[in-house]
Design goal:
The chain is an alpha/beta fold. It has helices at about 10-15, 30-45, 65-70, 85-95, 135-145, 160-170, 175-180, 200-210, 230-235, 240-250, 255; strands at about 55-60, 75-80, 105, 120-130, 150-160, 210-220, 260-270. It folds into two domains: about 25-160 and about 200-270, Vaccinia Virus protein VP39 (Rossmann fold); about 160-195, no CATH class. Helix content is about 40%, strand content about 20%. It has a seven-stranded mixed β-sheet, sandwiched between helices. Strand 1, helix 3 and strand 2 (about 75-80) form a beta-alpha-beta unit. The radius of gyration is 18 Å and the shape is globular. One of its GO terms (molecular function) is methyltransferase activity. Pfam families: Methyltransf_12. Keywords: Methyltransferase, S-adenosyl-L-methionine, Transferase. InterPro entries: Methyltransf_12, SAM-dependent_MTases_sf.
């Protein structure tokens, strides 16, 4: 179900900005709820400067899973992605949602970020599913942070090591699970499609080293990837119950070690310069 096109005031848009809740929302619900709250808080701060529309950068934002809902909140979003196909899908999706005037897609990647966007020009930066694929994750985080205005919001989402180990073990691939557990990059073998995974400590260290205060860490898809899809699709109320369980477990450190993804939310210091 697509949100209807209409006026784009932040107040009106906030009433229709939450993504729909199909089973796919299990992958994004926790992150979206945390991100939306952080953007709302940022609006209250900038609102004192008579500026309620935020400038948001989504690095690796693809076809707009987060960019379009953020635009529906009334903000301006720039998506940087290396894939022309993804950017074409983003353009179409933004048009269908009625926010084409608020979403801009540019081809590029995080390591070449300032070839295509302004340094220090954004109130919030989303860096979701990017660090797994860059040669230098620390540099990737630093560049993302350098795009922030003072006190800007960083939303970082990375693949979790523990979730991959648990998934391989539960699938009966015990040797692969052990390889992932001991591999420096957290990979379970040559056929692993993910080049790198992280622990919560590793991600928070990267963020703090880049000059960002960590406000919260969340485990994402703690249970969702382990529950049979047929159960969620056919059992009445199962989806909403699972979403509630994911939300309840997300902030508990005990579950970070088994989450498929890890989300770090932080705030840049008053000066983002090294």
């Amino acid at each position: 179900m697509r949100p209807p096109a209409s006026h784009h005031s932040p107040q009106a848009a906030s009433q229709r900005s939450d993504p729909p809740r199909p089973r796919a929302s299990l992958r994004t619900a926790v992150v979206w709820d945390v991100l939306k709250d952080a953007l709302d808080r940022r609006v209250k701060v900038t609102g004192r400067e008579s500026r309620t529309e935020l400038d948001v950068l989504d690095t690796g934002g693809g076809s707009g899973n987060f960019a379009v809902p953020v635009a529906l909140l009334g903000h301006r979003v720039t998506v940087v992605d290396p894939s022309p196909n993804a950017l074409f899908a983003l353009e179409r999706r933004a048009a269908e949602a009625g926010v084409a005037d608020r979403v801009r897609g540019v081809q590029g990647d995080v390591l070449g970020l300032f070839d295509v966007v302004e340094r220090g020009g954004f109130d919030a930066v989303l860096c979701h599913g990017v660090l797994e694929y860059v040669d230098d994750p620390a540099e990737g985080v630093r560049l993302a942070v350098d795009a922030l205005r003072p006190s800007g919001v960083l939303s970082l989402l990375g693949a979790g090591l523990g979730g991959a180990v648990l998934a391989r073990a539960l699938a009966g691939h015990f040797k692969e699970a052990q390889v992932a557990l001991t591999d420096p990059a957290g990979r379970w073998g040559e056929g692993d499609p993910v080049p790198r995974r992280f622990t919560a400590d590793q991600l928070t260290e990267l963020v703090e080293a880049a000059g960002v205060r960590v406000d919260a860490v969340h485990g994402v898809r703690v249970f969702a990837d382990l529950v049979p899809g047929v159960l969620v699709d056919t059992e009445p109320g199962a989806l909403e119950a699972l979403l509630a369980l994911e939300a309840a477990a997300a902030e508990l450190p005990a579950f970070h070690s088994v989450a498929t993804q890890l989300h770090v939310l932080g705030e840049a210091r008053e000066s983002t310069e090294a």
